[in-house]
Specification:
Its EC number is 3.1.3.5. By secondary structure, the protein is an alpha/beta fold. The protein is about 35% helix and about 20% strand. About 40% of the residues are buried. Bound molecules: magnesium ion.
Length: about 350
């Protein structure tokens, strides 16, 4: 199937309907191989989303293998910023968990912005060797964290920053978490951002705790007066999201209060060898490196610069959602793998 695109509307065909999925949701799926550069005939209607599947046969094989293995073998690993959250909010670029933070003293926001302007281009420089780049990222995260401490960040400040932020979950994220929670399938949110902020975003935007969700991210330590004094453990930055994985995971509800039911110990999560991985950068694929997985279905959200990045995303991910798509397609995917239940 050379350089050919087929589109099919899946609704009502191979995927069973589910109460989590709104009836209006349809996905236009492009099965393809070869280059996408000259494809200009992609169309999208309101209420539908565009999906690119590089190798549909391989995807079907993985879905079948994971369905046969059962939901007890399944786990989901997800990046946070621009994967679970929208890339655009109300027509503008949405904020990241780092970017939304406003310190009481605006001078520190400026200092962190200056660091961003210096280091962000280095992060994506094609000429800097990876070892050097990794050191630069450690430097960047270290300086940023030091500014948060020096600037006297408080937990109340985080709460207010989240309340004032333009950050929003994709449609369908809550339903995805609920679907997985009902089936005791663990979700690992793996982020180079800040765990405390991600928790606060969930608290304010979702208003719900999920006993199956863990966050692996940089975690703050506050003193009795609510002032940030340090960070726990080793820094997770954009280039080492593959190193610490489960060993740094802490239950989401550590801060948010107890919930009923079991939590997921690292060892039992590591026994779940079938993985659905969600990310918006090719580097996010490293999130499953610590796992000796049997099957992995990788889902990429290509939010921007589609024309230039589609080839590489299609080669890297099993499924690629375009243009800030909602999460309904992933809900459908897990409902295919876990057909039992409701
Ligand atoms: Mg991201």
């Amino acid at each position: 199937m050379s350089n050919r695109l087929q589109s099919i509307l899946l609704l009502g065909t191979t995927i069973r309907t589910n109460r989590f999925i709104p009836h209006r949701f349809t996905s236009r799926i492009w099965f393809c191989s070869g280059s996408f550069r000259n494809q200009t005939n992609m169309e999208i209607d309101d209420g539908s989303c565009e999906v690119v599947v590089g190798d549909p046969h391989l995807l079907d094989t993985k879905i079948a293998a994971m369905r046969n293995a059962g939901q007890a073998k399944l786990q989901v690993i997800a990046d946070f910023d621009a994967t679970l959250t929208k890339y655009r909010v109300n027509g503008s670029r949405g904020q990241s968990s780092h970017g939304l933070l406003q310190q009481e003293n605006a001078e520190y926001d400026n200092k962190r912005r200056e660091l961003y302007e210096y280091y962000h281009p280095l992060e994506f420089s094609p000429t800097i060797p990876i070892e050097e780049k990794t050191k630069l990222m450690e430097e960047w995260w270290g300086k940023t964290h030091a500014l948060l401490i020096e600037g006297g960040l408080t937990y109340d400040g985080i709460r207010q920053s989240v309340a004032d932020s333009t950050i929003a979950f994709r449609e369908g994220v809550v339903e995805l978490f609920e679907f997985l929670e009902e089936r005791d399938i663990p979700v690992l949110i793996f982020s180079a951002g800040l765990a405390d902020i991600i928790e606060e975003v969930m608290r304010q935007k979702v208003h719900k705790l999920f006993k199956n969700v863990k966050i692996v991210s940089n975690r703050m330590v506050f003193d009795d007066n609510g002032h940030l004094v340090s960070f726990k453990g080793k820094t997770i930055h954009s280039l080492n999201k593959n190193e610490h994985a489960l060993d740094m995971a802490a239950p989401l509800h550590d801060r948010l209060g107890a919930v009923d039911g079991p939590t997921y110990e690292n060892v039992s999560v590591k026994m779940r060898r079938n993985v659905i991985l969600l990310g918006d950068h090719i580097g996010d694929l490293g999130m499953s490196d610590g796992l000796n997985y049997e099957n992995r279905i990788s889902v990429g959200f290509l939010n921007d610069n589609v024309e230039n990045s589609l080839d590489s995303y299609c080669q890297a991910f099993d499924v690629v959602y375009l243009n800030d798509a909602p999460m309904w397609g992933v809900v459908k995917l897990v409902s295919q793998i876990c057909p039992g239940g409701d």
